[in-house]
């Protein structure tokens, strides 16, 4: 059986990006917390910046590029999600929202999820409760209690950012262990135990 996978979605517009840095810190905290449960996981980075044009085109044509389809599949098939966005006008970025808009309804239901956001100052921290939580509640994801907002002044100071990251990572790991995602086997997947070949069906006739 393969390791559970954590999809780490970051919507930073710069390179390097504080949004990507926060996503990486949340990933590391979650993986560390999982080891405390005697478990491991594979983290898969889903960086949205290179997919911006593909996302916009898909919203117009409903025909995803290969790269975008692969990114969507990484997220909807994951056992957990870490989703981090920069903050604009007290909300998530348009790129972040557009990516989750192109995911079909119901595909994120019950997936353990940790949320993070970055911004220029702490006055934007309400974005966690006013924008991100309602969005992921609508998507029916299982969001952990601690959301992590990182203002510019939080990095490299005794701001409590590292404690919040560790707490969110622990909560996500705990939820992954307590509520492991279970999927029904795809009967058309030839690698699945549920797959029945035409020859086998004839044999049962």
From TrEMBL:
Residues 4-155 form the NADPH-dependent FMN reductase-like domain. Keywords: Flavoprotein, FMN, Oxidoreductase. GO terms for molecular function: oxidoreductase activity. It comes from the Bacteria. Gene3D superfamilies: 3.40.50.360. The keyword Protease does not apply. The keyword Mitochondrion does not apply. This is NADPH-dependent FMN reductase-like domain-containing protein. It comes from Agrococcus pavilionensis RW1. The lineage of its organism: Bacteria, Bacillati, Actinomycetota, Actinomycetes, Micrococcales.
């Amino acid at each position: 059986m393969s390791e559970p996978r954590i999809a780490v979605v970051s919507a930073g517009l710069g390179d390097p990006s504080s949004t990507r840095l926060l996503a990486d810190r949340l990933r590391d905290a979650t993986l560390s917390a999982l080891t405390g449960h005697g478990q491991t996981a594979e983290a898969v980075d889903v960086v949205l910046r290179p997919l911006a044009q593909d996302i916009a085109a898909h919203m117009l044509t409903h025909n995803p590029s290969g790269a975008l389809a692969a990114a969507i599949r990484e997220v909807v098939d994951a056992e957990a999600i870490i989703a981090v966005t920069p903050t604009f006008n007290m909300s998530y970025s348009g790129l972040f929202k557009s990516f989750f808009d192109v995911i079909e309804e119901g595909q994120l239901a019950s997936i353990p999820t940790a949320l993070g956001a970055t911004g220029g100052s702490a006055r934007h921290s309400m974005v966690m409760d006013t924008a991100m939580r309602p969005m992921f509640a609508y998507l029916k994801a299982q969001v952990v209690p601690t959301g992590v907002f990182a203002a510019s002044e939080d990095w490299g100071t005794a701001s409590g950012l590292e404690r919040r990251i560790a707490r969110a990572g622990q909560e996500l790991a705990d939820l992954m262990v307590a509520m492991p995602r279970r999927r029904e086997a795809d009967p058309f997947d030839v690698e699945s135990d549920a797959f029945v070949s035409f020859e086998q069906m004839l044999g049962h006739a």
